[in-house]
Known about the structure:
Elements: E1 3-8, H1 15-25, E2 32-37, H2 42-53, E3 56-62, E4 67-72
Parallel strand pairs: 1-2
Antiparallel strand pairs: 2-4, 3-4
Helix pairs in contact: 1-2
Amino acid sequence: MTTTRLDLTGLKCPLPALKTRKALKGITSGDFLEVHCSDPLSVIDIPNLIRETGDKVEITERNESRIVFLIKKTMS
């Protein structure tokens, strides 16, 4: 298992979700995608995207300036 880090800090909706979708297509089932965002709407957009793709958000961390998602790729 590998973890790919995706820094989307500074990007506004819908770019974080679109770039996360594209990155998920490039990783293997069982691997992780760690997504760093600063757009407050990403707490809605990224989980909705993951429900669509069938993958799984393992961890979400949030502070004043950053949101981090750890996503496990479950679908091929």
